[in-house]
Structures are given as C-alpha cells and as structure tokens.
Write a structure and sequence with these properties.
Elements: E1 2-8, H1 14-29, E2 34-40, H2 41-45, H3 53-63, H4 65-76, H5 78-103, E3 107-110, H6 116-125, E4 132-135, E5 153-156, H7 159-167, E6 175-177, H8 193-199, E7 207-212, H9 221-234, E8 239-244, H10 249-257, E9 264-267, H11 273-279, E10 282-286, H12 289-297, E11 302-306, H13 315-321, E12 325-327, H14 331-343, H15 346-357, H16 362-375
Parallel strand pairs: 1-2, 1-3, 3-4, 4-5, 5-6, 7-8, 7-10, 8-9, 10-11, 11-12
Helix pairs in contact: 1-16, 3-4, 5-6, 8-11, 9-14
Bound molecules: uridine-5'-diphosphate.
C-alpha cells in the first residue's frame, strides 16, 4: 500500500479540516490503495519551544491581533522569513526526520504555509527526494511561504491564488486551480432545508441564523449573539439562533448560562457543520476560508464579522464583491443587517451566487490529480 503523509499544524481549524477532506477523498476514490496519515508537524515533530507555536497561535490571534498583524507584516518580507527558517531548521531537522522515518511516505502533501521550505530542505538532505505537493488552504490572501517552486504541484482555490503562485516563481504547469478541499459530507447531494432541519430537531418555517467563529470560536461571538437575539426578538421575526462555539469552552459555557428572548441553541465543537449550514438561512462568521468555502457549497449567504489580519483580509472583498454576503464588525450593525435579511428577498440572490462559486468536489479532484502524478 502506498503511504501518503499530510503535514499540517493546528493553527486554526482550517488546515486540519482540509487535511481530513483529502484523507477522506483518498479513501473514497481509491479504497485500500493508500494509507494516508495526518501529522501536526509543529506539535509532534519539532522541539521546544518551536512545538509551542500552535498553542500560542490562537491566544495571540484572539487577544493580541495587533501583534499577529505585526508578525504577519514582518514575515511577509521573504528575507525575514527565510532568515528565521534558516535559524529554526537546524533545531528541527532531527525531529522532522523522525516524521519521515516513522511514516516512510511515498508522497508528502503540505496544507500549511510554513511547511514548504523546511520540509523541502529536509527532503533534499534525506536521499532520493520524496514527491512533495502543496494544497493552499487560503482563498484570497496568501503568505508567500505557501509557494515554493520545488513543489511538484501547487493546488489553489482561486485565480488570485494562482496569480500569487506565478508571482512566486511557480510555472503554470505546476499550478492547478481546483478549489479548497472540504470534507466529503459537503460533496454529497445536500438535503433540502426542511429535511436538514428535521434531522437536527429544528422547527421549519422560521428564520435560522447560524453564528460561528472558526474552529476556535474566535471574535466577539457573545456580543453578536446577544445583539442578534435582541433584534430578531424585537422585530417579532419568527427566528432561531444557533451558535457554534468550536473549541472555545469558556464561550460555550457563558452562552449556555445566558437568558435569551428567542429560541437559541449553543454548541461546542460540532462534527456536522454541513447539517447546520444546510439548515440555516445565513451564517455570521469571521472570514475563515474553510467556513466560507463550505458556506458557498451550501448556498448560505455570509455575513463576515471580522478577519484575522493577514491571511483572512482578502476574504472580505472576495465575499462582498462576489455578491455572496456582507461585512460588518459591530454587533448592532450585524443585528441590523441580519434583521433586514430576515425580512427581505435578498437572501435568495446571495444564495444563488454562493452556489455558483461553491466547489464541492475539490478534494476528490485534487486527489485524482495527485494519484495521476504518483502514477506518472
Ligand atoms: N468547524 C467544525 N466544527 C466546529 C467549528 C468549526 O467542523 O464546531 C470547522 C469549519 O467547518 C471549518 C473549520 O473548522 O471547516 C474552520 O476553518 P476556517 O478556515 O473557517 O477558520 P480557522 O478555524 O482555521 O481560523
């Protein structure tokens, strides 16, 4: 059986979600032919303090986004990143080589912007080079670390990403625009809204707003939930609010203790995002690429409530200019917009635009091309 290693890191929920999407697509398209393993390279195969990076990422992004923006701007300079990687590489080389020895992959897939250079250095050193491909899990803003001319293929999800790859020296033949890989339940024929609602025990015939903050439940989710609930209740809209807190347990506990003026469900990390998205009328979320790609497939209008500086900035114009949603940071402003959506016919137009942009089969299309490359 051929072994494939997907290298990622749990900085946010999107990299793992895309890695799992590819793993599932290999199993579905080529049952029994590939053993696909996912590793969090930073956590499991780098020494302290480098291995703390995924743990400090969320608190920095959530509580000191100015610092994250500063780091992003600094490392946008190619010289700065390559200097740091040159310093870090000798510290990590031995541990990263353990990943190769443990998994002995026939091909490596990176779904993280900081894996390209380090792994390609390692592969050069370790004898006959293992094929290496990149799957870019960002939609419209890109760190240059994603793009390395020595990756055999670079799979991207938008024209902007393809242009960025070309600017960073990749040849057109290396770049493949196939969409952002999302989990297989988004690739199936989606149930209609009434069926999805029945499956979740939700009342049909009401307006349902879904509120999320990525895998980590980031941003002012609580303030938005309260403003939204007040507004929908005040306007007499027959509405329900679903809040998905992801791994943010403190947020989940606080919201579960709250009193609400309308029916509200509060959940922690859910494994059935497709069901919630299919059941809802709109989603309010930070500008995470994974959530946006999934919402597009479900034909779900998107109200962006914020973005992580750097990697999510470009997703705002992507959503607004493509006519699939709006952007607003203030909880009261968000409540106004959703209140207007609940009462008007705008949602249908945005839902149709979203469906046009959705790429439900990206994961299997990418996997087919990777297998073609391996069979070469
Ligand atoms: N997600 C999930 N369950 C949750 C919360 C989030 O499966 O309870 C998934 C979501 O569907 C998406 C990913 O986590 O696939 C979040 O990725 P995104 O790029 O939107 O944001 P990130 O968390 O990486 O900042």
């Amino acid at each position: 059986m051929l072994r494939i290693l997907i290298v990622m890191s749990d900085t946010g929920g999107g990299h793992r979600a895309s890695a799992q999407a590819l793993q599932a697509a290999f199993a579905a398209r080529f049952p029994g032919r590939f053993q696909v393993e996912i590793v969090d390279l930073w956590t499991d195969y780098t020494p302290w303090p480098v291995n703390q990076m995924p743990r400090v990422y969320s608190p920095i992004v959530a509580r000191a986004s100015w610092l994250w923006k500063l780091l992003w701007l600094l490392f946008e300079r190619e010289r700065a990143l390559s200097t740091v990687l040159r310093l870090v590489y000798p510290l990590c080389r031995k541990d990263m080589a353990r990943a190769l020895q443990a998994h002995r992959p026939h091909l490596i897939i990176s779904v993280h912007p900081l894996m390209q250079q380090l792994f390609l250095w390692l592969l050069e050193r370790e004898g006959p080079p293992t094929p290496f491909v990149t799957v870019v899990t960002d939609l419209a803003s890109f760190h240059h670390g994603w793009f390395h001319p020595r990756a055999q293929r670079c799979f991207v999800a938008s024209e902007t990403a393809a242009a960025a790859a070309r600017r960073h020296g990749l040849q057109p033949a290396q770049i493949r625009l196939l969409g952002l890989p999302v989990r297989p339940d988004f690739a199936q024929t989606l149930p209609d809204r009434a069926t999805a609602r029945a499956g979740l025990g939700l009342t049909d015939g009401t307006f349902i707003a879904l509120l999320a903050g990525g895998g980590e439940g980031m941003g002012p989710v609580a303030a938005i939930a309260h403003a939204l609930a007040r507004r929908l209740a005040a306007t007499g809209t027959d509405a329900q609010l679903i809040v998905i807190c992801g791994r943010n347990d403190r947020l989940r506990r606080a919201l579960q203790r709250s009193e609400w003026p309308l029916p509200v469900q509060v959940h922690g990390f859910v494994d059935n995002m497709q069901a919630w998205m299919t059941a809802a009328d709109c989603i309010i979320t930070k500008a995470g690429p994974g959530t946006i790609a999934e919402a597009l497939i479900c034909g779900l209008p998107i109200l962006l409530s914020g973005f992580i500086p750097g990697q999510e900035e470009g997703n705002v114009p992507f959503v607004v200019e493509n006519g699939v949603g709006a952007y607003c940071e203030s909880p009261e402003g968000i409540a106004d917009i959703v209140g207007a959506w609940a009462g008007g016919g705008e949602l249908e137009r945005m839902a149709a635009c979203a469906r046009e942009l959705g790429r439900p089969h990206a994961a299997s299309d990418i996997v087919d091309e990777i297998v073609e490359l391996m069979e070469g």
